[in-house]
Structure formats: C-alpha cells, structure tokens
Amino acid sequence: MSFRVAFTADFLKPGSTEPVFPDIDATALDVPGVDYHILTEGVDEIRPGQLADTDAVVVLGPKVSAASLEGADQLAVVARIGVGFDAVDVEACTRAGVALTITPDGVRRPVASAALAFLLAQAHRLPLKDRLTRDGRWGEKPQHMGIGLRGRTLGLVGLGNIGQEILALIAPHDMNIVVTDPYADPDRVEGLGAQLLDLPSMLGRADFVIVCCALTTQTHHLIGETEFRQMKPSAHLINVARGPIVDQKALTGALQQGEIAGAALDVFEREPVDLDDPLLGLENVILAPHALSWTDESFRMMGESAFAGILAIARGKAPDHVVNRDVLDSSAFKKRIAACAGRATADEES
Length: 350
Hints:
Strand content: 5-15%
Shape: elongated
Radius of gyration: 22 Å
Strand order of the largest sheet: 8-7-6-9-10-11-12
Order of helices and strands: EEEEHEHHEHEHEHEHEHEEHH
Distance between the termini: 10 Å
C-alpha cells in the first residue's frame, strides 16, 4: 500500500481536469512509494470519510473541521497552501495526532510586496489619477497632490514574517516605523529600526497602517469604531491579512465620514464581498479580491514548501512550518508518521 496524498477539489477548474494554479507543480510528488489524487467533492468543507486511506491532504480553500477528520485514521498531515489557518480546526487536528503545516516561504515576499503596492498606490493617488487620465480631466491634476513617504510614519499591526519583510521592502523610503504586537520582543523590534507601541499609540502616530497579523479570537475586530477615531484624519489603512480583523461596517463609516483618508483592502469580512456593499461605492478605497499577492512565484514556492513537508512525513520525519507544534511530541502523531514511512517504503521496495 502506497503513501497516499489527496488534493482538495478546488485545485481543478469546475468540471475539468485542468488545474486552477498550474504553478503548483505536483510532479514533485512523483517519487516511488507516493500516489496522489484529487478529491471529487467537498469544495466548501472536506466531508467525513473523504480522507479514509489518506496519509496527507493538501488544502486550498475548503474548511477542515473535526467532522472532516472522521475516518481519517492514517492521516498524518494537513498541508495548507498559504499562511492563514482560520478555516482549519487546529485543536481537532492535534487531538487526532495530525500536524497542520502552512507555507510561509511562498507567502512572505508576495504579501509584503502587495502591501507595499497598496501603500504606494495610496501615496501617489494612483486610482484617482488613472480616472483623470481616462476621463480627459488633465486640468484637475493640481488638486490631487500625492503624499511623500520620507519622514512619514508607517504603523504595522503584527511583526511576524510578513511584517518583517515589509520593513525590509520599505527601508529605502526612509519612513519612521511603529509596531504593535503583544508577542514581539522589544529588543528585536528596536534592532529592526522600529518602535514598539500599544495599539492606540501606534494608530495615533501612523500615516499608514498595515494590518499583517493572524486572525484569532483575540484579533477579531481588533480595529473598529474606537480605533478609527484614534487614527489621524489623513491616515490610510491597508489590510492584507484577514478581513474580520477589521470591523468592515466601522471602516465604511470611517471612510464615509472622513475619520480616515483612505483604505486599501485585499480581504473582507465576507468573501466574495457583496456587490451591494457600500464599500464598493467609495472612491477613497482600493480593493482587490484576496489575490493581490497571487503571482507565479508565490504559488510555485507555496507548492514546493507544502510538498517538502509531505515528503518529510513519507520518510518518517517531522515537517517544517507546523502550526500545532505540540502534536510533534504526541504518541499518536509519531505512530502515524511511522506507519506512513512504512507504506511509502514498502511500496517503493515492491
């Protein structure tokens, strides 16, 4: 019996055998002892029993719930493409002895680049100037001056991998950097040329605020009505993390009432965003469909990262980038990866 890898159904275009993301090169799994296939159902959530006789599952969008793990008696790893794991029941995975991996190697630079693209577009008023050009309104351009970044203040909500990458990319622009992150080491922050502040203090000083933290129960609606009133009327908010970190209704009101100058969003509380959402009618917001960071490089590297972890499991080793690291010491996980390695080796030798 071989080591079996499943891909969620959304890896293929509906009704087709054509991949949605061809840059995710599954041929990395074309090694002796490893077989892989696409699940045919469960686009919204992996269904109970679908992962029976499966050692690893590669996940794009579907939820992985406790019910998804029913019957998955030999599953050792859920390999999530991306860094967000709010759609995965992490505790259920840990209880079952299943590791959850993510792919920060393929996300860090593309998401940071997307955040910088938003920031530069806001600073230079790119969408507005595009409209002026298309409408032949050249005479209006003196009324719409951009914002120079040198000496301005950038605030980061979160200083993980993406936040640190943003600091590296923004360095040539000579901005002052302030950060809020309850888990950040003050000396580490200072070493990166930034200042660690509490959330209200950071919001009050920043000209641009980039949200780049994880969505948790603690960060849900972290930025709402109170926080928008703490920001400068000239400030801009950028969210490249997860929509529910920002209270979208409060954000819409803040933009409509001029409490802040603008926003740029790649994520929303509900996705796809409703077409009648008032946010879509505002001219002081830039929007993208949770895909601004999607590049050929990003998907290639995310695939490489996910497959490296899966092949480690097939060799009986712990993978990198495990979210629920406590599971690595559990007897249930150790038993599962030992069995996985046995299947891969037995099939290779046969």
